[in-house]
Description:
By secondary structure, the chain is mainly α. The chain is built from 18 helices and no strands.
Amino acid sequence: xxxxxxxxxxxxxxxxxxxxxxFLSLYSVRLVLDILGESDYGIYMLIGGVVSMLSxxxxxxxxxxxxxxxxxxxxxxMEKTRSVFRDSLLVHIVLGLLVVVVLEAIVPLLFNGxxxxxxxxxxxxxxxxxxxxVMIVISFIAAPYRALLVSRENIVYxxxxxxxxxxxxVLLVLLLPYITWDKLVGYGCVMLTxxxxxxxxxxxxxxxxxxxxRLPRLRSFNREYAGRLASFSxxxxxxxxxxxxxxxxxxxILNRFLGTVVNAAYGLSIQISSMIGVVGGSLAYxxxxxxxxxxxxxxxxRMWLLATLQSKFSFLLVSFVGIPTxxxxxxxLELWLGKGNVPQYTVMFACMFVVMQxxxxxxxxxxxxxxxxxxxxxxxxxxxxxNILVLPFCWLATYLRLPVATTGLLMVLTAVAYTLLRLxxxxxxxxFNLGAYCREVILKPLPPVAVSxxxxxxxxxIPDFTASFLxxxxxxxxxxxxxxxxxxxxxxxxxxxxxMLSRIIR
Length: 506
């Protein structure tokens, strides 16, 4: 399969996986809440939050391992690729065991008064905690296998596995009412079973399909590579932490001055933001392995081409969905939460995050290009600073009782600074033409954005009727697509789109 066709297939697989898993997750959460009840579900969210807390670390490990695997594959050195995988797997196993030691050491502290567990549920909570610890070890060991499949651009298989795991989760949850032992422990066993299915699906397939997938050997362990992997993962973790500190720090500031009602609005807006972000993220998931393989093969021109295309099309896709969504955010929230149940400021925060997501897409390819080149230390340090420095300004704005929209404006300005720093810090990189990049990624997408905004403004003049908010998508999306095809795409890209549509129609 040609590289461009592979990107299209992998992007489509990522979208389908995300949408299906979203619906399955929403349905399973509702089932679990009904079966466990609010108290036991709260216990699971409290203890299971350990997995979420460590997820940013495993995400960094997957991204780092995938980078080194893709680069070595691009170099065409199978023995080096095999060594990279073996050493990565050994590092992940050791890290998983170290995390277990720490988590087991704090058990007496957690369950002797630190956590507020309802009377009579401490035993079930401790059992659940042990199941969660095993799940964490499995997630660490599974990380290099998932990274291998991503580096091999086998997004279709990972998507199928993820969706099947979601289906199995719903089926197992439906069986929970019929078990005779504790339902909370039973749900922990369900989640552990899903973790086992995941690692078996990835590891068995990887060992059967790819020659570089080998078990670690101590005598051939490369300490230099382990150090590079640790450094690379550390900086990616720092980047993720800066985003988490920004988002959660603002939540604490809002809670301190404005109360929990604003926190509810802020939390709902983050969920909406994550849904919009999926639109651009799936494309990056498909293009990043090819960028890193091109860098490994010494073909930097192709790497920059892919980075530019990723940024441009991610921006177009997020704008395609995000612009009309901002105009109908309130009716959409009422459709989801129920009429009259939308907390104050939810629309404002949701639109803020959509704008931030859209701006972030303008330099998403540049970020992955720096990862491919291995130049992350200075790049991530300086681009992460706006995420941290914005918090004192948000605190001052709320302390002075300025309108809540002021914090939203500060967050949007942070996204602008974040994007500008990415571009400015990359301008001296070999082969990167900042002027050409800005023309292709920023100027060319302006016409469809302007047309979409005009269509959305025109919609506000239409008389209101039942489900009238859906009409905005009918108005803006076709105009956006046609204008983007006419003004934003090159002739080669137009031919590719025509060929793809022709195959779909046939």
